[in-house]
Amino acid sequence: MRHLFSPTSDGALAGLMQQQPLLGFDFDGTLAALVERPAMARLEPATAAKLARLAAAVPVVVISGRAVGDLVPRLEGIPLAGISGNHGLEPWGATPEIEHLVQGWADALSQRFGHVPGLEIENKRWSLTVDYRHVPDLLSTEKALAGFAKTLPRARVLGGRHADLNLAPAGEHHKGTALARHVMALGRGTALYVGDDRTDEDAFAQPIAGLVSVRVGQKAGSHAQFFLQEQPEVDRLLDTLLALATPDSR
């Protein structure tokens, strides 16, 4: 991985912007800083203003683990070309069958772990998140959850950042396929994708010609080509993309 703004990376963004790209971003930890309570996550006003200007010049999509209904009010006023939620399941994999499957996981997890103080199960209809950062015994809860998740039918364990467990249905829909669908639907030549955790690796590894993949935070073994030092550097990326945007970018 190379730092996106190092001398060895000069030209990567300029070359990208000459190919009519789609610009894709994760939300938490990428466009918005990570916070102790995910419900409190928001775009900084300066970031929102830059993203709105960029989305008016170049097609921009947000692909997140959050549900679309959760994302929409957090992105109000930004002329996005698309929003995908539930790790790329929503909208393309959002079927009644999947909703029933995820509800079964939620019921099973609630029966097994509902008594644990500080543990929260968030059912997002087509995926779910177990947040256990506030439980009394973090390590034993983590071990028990990991073992139990393996017993759930058709569950793909996506992991998380710290003391949370993301589960989504195994199959064809993920952040990478969501990015590819947006590229095709919008008729773009290539794409940029920026994310920060394990759930974004599917997008980093998606076989899109000319894809520029950027991870927030350097990590060995990531599929991303480039990295940003930390989340506030995303604003520098937005500024750079705005400076490179031309009428041809649209």
Explain what you see.
With 250 residues, this protein is an alpha/beta fold. The longest helix has 18 residues, at 96-113. The protein has a seven-stranded parallel β-sheet, with helices on both faces. It is globular, with a radius of gyration of 18 Å. It has two domains: 2-91 and 173-249, Rossmann fold; 96-169, Trehalose-6-phosphate phosphatase related protein, domain 2 (Alpha-Beta Plaits). The mean pLDDT is 93. It has helices spanning 12-17, 45-57, 68-74, 96-113, 138-149, 175-186, 201-204, 233-244; strands spanning 2-3, 21-25, 60-63, 82-84, 120-123, 128-131, 155-159, 164-169, 190-195, 212-216, 226-228.
Give the helices and strands, then pairings.
Blueprint: E1 2-3, H1 12-17, E2 21-25, H2 45-57, E3 60-63, H3 68-74, E4 82-84, H4 96-113, E5 120-123, E6 128-131, H5 138-149, E7 155-159, E8 164-169, H6 175-186, E9 190-195, H7 201-204, E10 212-216, E11 226-228, H8 233-244
Parallel strand pairs: 1-11, 2-3, 2-9, 3-4, 9-10, 10-11
Antiparallel strand pairs: 5-6, 6-8, 7-8
